[in-house]
Write a structure and sequence with these properties.
Layout: E1 2-6, E2 20-25, H1 28-42, E3 49-54, H2 60-68, E4 76-82, H3 84-87, H4 92-105, H5 107-125, H6 133-143, H7 150-159, H8 168-179, E5 188-195, H9 202-210, E6 212-216, H10 223-237, E7 240-241, H11 243-252, H12 257-271, E8 276-277, H13 279-285, E9 292-293, H14 294-302, H15 306-315, E10 322-324, E11 327-328, H16 336-358, H17 371-377, H18 379-383, H19 403-414, H20 418-436, H21 441-454
Parallel strand pairs: 1-6, 2-5, 2-6, 3-4, 4-5, 7-8, 9-10
Antiparallel strand pairs: 10-11
């Protein structure tokens, strides 16, 4: 069939459902939530459905029997199973690296971890664990394009303890037998869950082609879903969160679902059963992963707030993702300083032009003017075309100037004199030369921004 997004996907009734449905996503909570909704939809046509739910450590033979044999009690059987370990949660190449690193670390713990990664690697590549170690290692190294890893992989395979009967091969065989039955099931549907499965696994591709893969998405605004996740986990642990703590956690994780879920678990463990999480706890226990918007630097410059501006400038160089509104930057270390200088001087140039236009004609502007008044009295003048160009000087490639963006830029410009902005613009060429001649980047830009704010 195909890959479809949850919650946009339409789930058919049981009789028309494909034999294998996989619900996948980056966060276990949302995967389980979506799988429960799918299970409910499958039974929505009123048919009696026998539900068999297996944990991921259930014997492979028991799961296989449930998949391949018809129910004795109902015409419909739904077998639900977490297959994260079966498909793997890392790419095969990453598993090779992890296995080798653990083996090199040595000790009982290192060996166990190396064996675990190697088993996951063999399952993902569908290679036998009991074959010739050297041949299997060569095949794995070739498939993952890590040929240098073959000798160490062979060494690990020689000492890999024999696994109990059944295992991944039995489960994969049963799932493939279901898929071979055609587009519609014959009374049994496998509802699988997986967290972050690697895209290159053969079985995953087969399910996408002959079954249905539902990819869980929290949408463009993940905050409501993340709040739901927090509320559910907090209830389970009887932990309370201050409102400020929730907002701080959303901000410091940049609302990234996987990062948010991981940091939430750390905070729950930190608080303990029946504990409480405060904003200060988030501040001290969660690393700040939030992306930085260049407009926040511009706003600080516009307020002539040196402390905030220099803090924002430092954040733009500490390795986090950087954006300007909806535009994301590719952080290339060699060109980012000049690129940022160009953004800053571009904003200063716009402020200077605005400063000049705001001083023309009737209807003055001040930083305290509300937006409706600006829109009625000032905006028409800024949007007016300028001869001989026939368009507004504030019009960009994407069309006419954005009213609210012009309002914010006008607020920034109104706090500077035209002389101050022109002086800062004239210094930009010297700063550019300094950056290109090995001057310390952050210090050089900090001095430039600091002088602008001070009016020096």
């Amino acid at each position: 069939m195909a890959r479809q997004r949850y919650p946009d996907v339409e789930i058919p009734g049981f009789s028309k459902a494909p034999p294998v449905i996989l619900v996948s996503g980056g966060v276990e909570f949302f995967v389980e939530e979506a799988a429960a909704a799918v299970a409910k939809a499958l039974a929505g046509e009123g048919a009696e459905v026998e539900l068999l739910r297996f944990e991921d450590d259930a014997p492979a033979e028991a799961v296989s029997d449930a998949l391949l044999n018809k129910s004795l009690f109902s015409a419909h059987r739904l077998v639900e199973l977490d297959v994260s370990r079966l498909l793997g949660t890392d790419s095969p190449g990453s598993l090779v690296v992890s296995a080798l690193e653990a083996w090199e670390r040595g000790g009982a713990g290192g060996r166990r971890e190396a064996f675990r990664h190697t088993r996951a690697l063999l399952a993902a590549l569908e290679l036998p664990a009991g074959g010739d170690p050297a041949e299997t290692a060569e095949a794995a190294a070739k498939k993952t394009r890590k040929k240098d890893a073959a000798p160490v992989l062979a060494e690990i395979l020689r000492e890999l303890p024999e696994e109990k009967s059944g295992g991944p091969a039995v489960l994969k065989g049963a799932l493939r037998a279901l898929l071979a039955r055609g587009a519609e099931n014959d009374g049994t549907v496998a509802l699988l869950r997986a967290v972050s499965p690697p895209s290159g696994v053969d079985l995953l591709q087969e399910i996408a082609t002959r079954g249905l893969v539902i990819e869980v998405s929290v949408g463009e605004d993940p905050a409501p879903a993340l709040r739901r996740l927090l509320a559910a986990r907090a209830r389970e642990r009887e932990v309370s969160f201050d409102a400020g703590a929730i907002e701080r956690l959303l901000k410091r994780t940049d609302q990234d679902p996987a990062v948010f879920a991981a940091e939430l678990e750390k905070l729950l463990a930190f608080a303990g059963q029946g504990g409480r999480v405060r904003a200060a706890d988030v501040e001290s226990n969660v690393e700040d992963e939030a992306s930085e918007d260049v407009y926040l630097l511009f706003d600080a410059i516009g307020r002539r707030d040196a402390n905030e501006a220099l803090t924002r400038l430092e954040r733009l160089f500490d390795g986090r993702d950087v954006r300007q509104g909806s535009r994301a930057f590719e952080m290339i270390e060699e060109i980012w300083p000049q690129q940022l200088l160009g953004l800053i001087t571009g904003e200063i140039r716009r402020m200077l032009l605005l400063r000049a236009r705001l001083e023309e004609g009737p209807g003055g502007f001040d930083a305290g003017m509300p937006f409706p008044a600006f829109e009625a009295r000032v905006l028409p003048r800024l949007q007016a075309p300028v001869p001989p160009f026939g368009r507004s000087p504030f019009e960009g490639r994407g069309g006419g100037p954005k009213p609210y963006a012009l309002y914010k830029a006008s607020q920034r410009a109104s706090r500077y004199s035209a002389r101050e902005l022109a002086r800062a613009l004239s210094r930009a060429a010297d700063v550019d030369v300094q950056l290109k001649t090995s001057a310390p980047v952050l210090e050089t830009l900090s001095v430039y921004v600091g002088q602008l704010i001070a009016g020096a």
